[in-house]
Amino acid sequence: MRYSIASLLRNALSYHEHWPQAWRSPAPKPRYEVVIIGGGGHGLATAYYLAKNHGITDIAVLEKGWIGGGNTGRNTTGIRSNYLHDASAAFYDYSVRLYEELSRTLNYNIMFSQRGLVSLMHSDAELAQADRLRNALHANGIETDFMTVADLAREIPLLDTSPDARYPVIGAVRQKRAGTARHDAVAWAYARAADGLGVHIIQDCAVRGIRREGDRVTALETTQGNIAAGRVAIAVAGHSSVLAEMAGFRLPIVSYALQAVVSEPLKPMLDTIVGSTAVHVYLTQSDKGELVIGASRDGYPSYAQRGSFGTVEDMMAAGLALFPTLGRVKLLRQWAGIVDVAPDASPIVSKTPVANLYISTGWGTGGFKAIPAGGVVFAHTIALDRPHALNERYGLDRFTSGRLMDENAAAAVRH
Amino acid sequence: MLILPCPWCGPREETEFACDGEVSSVSVDPATASDGAWADALHNRTNRKGMHREWWCHRRGCRQWFWIERDTATNQLRNSGLPGTES
Ligand SMILES: Cc1cc2nc3c(=O)[nH]c(=O)nc-3n(C[C@H](O)[C@H](O)[C@H](O)COP(=O)(O)OP(=O)(O)OC[C@H]3O[C@@H](n4cnc5c(N)ncnc54)[C@H](O)[C@@H]3O)c2cc1C
Ligand SMILES: [Zn+2]
Predict the structure, then answer these.
(1) Ligand 1 centroid to A334 CA: how many Å?
(2) Which ligand 1 atom sits nearest the alpha carbon of residue A78?
(3) Min CA distance, B3 vs chain A (Å)?
């Protein structure tokens, strides 16, 4: 069924009791041409583009919990393309362009809101770095504008722009096309669209083992039985190393907990994303009115989806330094996701040492913005057994050749 | 918040320490290693979900290094020791 004003009216008349399921829940078949492990945004988008762009529809997406229950449903939904390196800028800007059309493409309201991202500067060194980044972005066709303290005081009135602030702000760089989207909706939209093209989405199905013959995967051992596969694609974020170990190799990935919090709902007070790399926190306000606040990852490798209290304390201290007026606001929820961090903070969308096994990982603290483009290039890599032009630099081979792509220093938020 | 046992100062809060990641299981000679072996030692990690050994430095305390066994899924702590006894 197509979602439209007509379907909305029709279903309103029957008290919304007859909406069809957005996707089926089939029992797994014994074999699929492609099996994707991980029903997050990346796995689901990859299934959709494999079907849509490459005509491969004999696909299963295996998700150990529920789709979108991993980092995709836990992230703060910042979408931007202000990356320093040419290859990153091209990749992430393509993703932002896909996001601009996504509600229409998938016939699902993902609530993409281009409210802009404001990166605050507190020192001359940061201003100099910002010039370099802005020029690099400009050369890649990605426009940003510089905001003075007066601009900031006018546009973000609750931000402390006074010279005696704890960390005085001296300017900011803004990407106006940056924004936010509803995270679950992105997973659900891709799931529904992929299902419509014949993809099987199988929840509550954890992969426990990977069967190999020589340098090929033959089947997966899952909690719903063995499933044979022509090709296998791993898109499990923080659990990438666990899956790689099942297949017999190691990855340049470390898993960390990354936390976020939301406040009680407030009246509209912040209509953009504001972040500071130096003080290290970023805030947005959701459509429900909650302040969504994020900061750095925890300091040690972790699969414990709980997070360190010290990190939350630092995040709050930083948030209050920028917005002292929030001192009496209560937090409603805190949570963590397990993120997959590569040494150069760039993703890995690649073939692997196993011939018919592919992996998409290294999305770390910033892979929500990458879901549409990540899906396109991973589907291309799986379908044609070679990278798309936009992920040529994201291969595992870069760790042997030494051609890393370090986005650590360049990111608008420290990783 | 983890409470880590510094071998010199005793139990202290995690915020006093810095973690330097897993104790590496590979060691290679950069002068003779192949590119692949060198890349493996330099970049690849086991990144275990479960009990592993990792390095910590009591950075805001005595500044000494030690290793500890921690379960990365539950944060349960086990043995620890001084450099030289890690492998
Ligand atoms: C707190 C937080 C804030 C963030 N903020 C931002 C942000 O502002 N902007 C941004 O762009 N990115 C952000 N990110 C990063 C972003 O969320 C991730 O990079 C992105 O969602 C990764 O998508 P994914 O599909 O690769 O992983 P996931 O959504 O985690 O999906 C992987 C799935 O694999 C499943 N799985 C794991 N093991 C198995 C198995 N053995 N068998 C079957 N299934 C398995 C998991 O259950 C999970 O559902 C943030 C992350 C966190 C945690
Ligand atoms: Zn000590």
Answers:
(1) 16
(2) 8
(3) 11
Nearest Cα residue in chain A from B15: A310
Please list the rounded mean pLDDT of every run of 10 residues in chain A (415 residues): 94 94 97 98 98 98 98 97 94 98 98 97 94 95 97 97 96 97 98 98 98 97 98 98 98 98 97 94 96 95 94 95 96 97 96 98 97 98 98 97 83 49
Distance A286 CA to ligand 1 centre (A): 20
> Going by DSSP bridges, is the β-strand pair A145-147/A171-175 parallel, antiparallel, or unpaired?
antiparallel
In terms of pTM, does the model score above 0.95?
yes
Eight-state DSSP code of residue B24 = P
CA triplet A194, A198, A204: central angle to 5 degrees?
Answer: 70
> Rounded distance, CA A117 to CA A180, Å?
9
Q: Give the Cα separation of A170 and A174 in Å (integer).
A: 14
**Nearest ligand to the CA atom of A238:** 1
Torsions phi, psi for A37 (to 5 deg): -95, 120
Contact A255/B15, CB-based, under 8 Å? no
CA distances from A151 to A3, A12, A49, A137 (A): 41, 45, 42, 21
**A136 closest CA partner among A198, A81, A201, A216:** A81
Locate A266 and state its tokens: 């407030």
- Contact call for A400 and B73, based on CB within 8 A: no
Please give the structure tokens belonging to residue A49: 């583009």
Q: Which residues pair with residue A357 across a beta bridge?
A: A232
Q: How far apart are CA A110 and CA A107, in angstroms?
A: 9
Q: What protein residues have CB closer than 5 angstroms to ion ligand 2?
A: B 6, 8-9, 58, 61-62
Q: Closest Cα of chain B to A400: distance in Å?
A: 5
Cβ–Cβ < 8 Å for A322, A274: yes
CB contact under 8 A, B47 and A300: no
CB-based contact B45 A302, cutoff 8 Å: no
- Hunting for tokens 């000494």 — which residue is that? B64
Q: State how far Cα A10 lies from the chain centre.
A: 35
Q: Is the ipTM of this complex over 0.90?
A: yes
- Cα angle at B70 between B66 and B75, to 5 degrees? 130
Return the best residue to mutate from A236, A274, A377 for the ligand 1 pocket (most ligand atoms within 8 A of CB): A236
DSSP letters for A89-117? HHHHHHHHHHHHHHHHHHTS----B---E
Query: Min CA distance, B40 vs chain A (Å)?
Result: 8
- Superfamily for domain range B3-81: Folate-binding superfamily (3.30.2270.10)
